[in-house]
Amino acid sequence: MAPAKKGGEKKKGRSAINEGTQRIRKFAMKEMGTPDVQIDTRLNKAVWAKGIKNVPYRIRVRLSRKRNEDEDSPNKLYTLVTYVPVTTFKNLQTVNVDEN
């Protein structure tokens, strides 16, 4: 009988990438309160940068709530998740930006 899989083991292949993007989507839904989440192409490239198996442990993102221009969409708002490149993750602060 094979031992049970523990939480610290690495996922393989596409499931690792899918779990990374699912976590980003889940985080954005929770923080912004919109069920519709769109991931920017630069963020997708940053997640895929180290290959299919080596998903980055941390990634800095910017969340922005936008008005949905699509008339037949059930949601009035959506969240756009963009990539923010940083050199180090030490001493980072949360910044709220007001766009007018």
TrEMBL record:
Residues 1-20 are annotated as: Disordered. GO terms for cellular component: cytosolic large ribosomal subunit. This is Large ribosomal subunit protein eL31. InterPro entries: Ribosomal_eL31, Ribosomal_eL31_dom_sf. It holds the Pfam family Ribosomal_L31e. GO terms for molecular function: structural constituent of ribosome. Component of the large ribosomal subunit. Coiled coil: none annotated. Keywords: Ribonucleoprotein, Ribosomal protein. Component of the large ribosomal subunit. The ribosome is a large ribonucleoprotein complex responsible for the synthesis of proteins in the cell. The lineage of its organism: Eukaryota, Metazoa, Chordata, Craniata, Vertebrata. The keyword Plastid does not apply. Belongs to the eukaryotic ribosomal protein eL31 family.
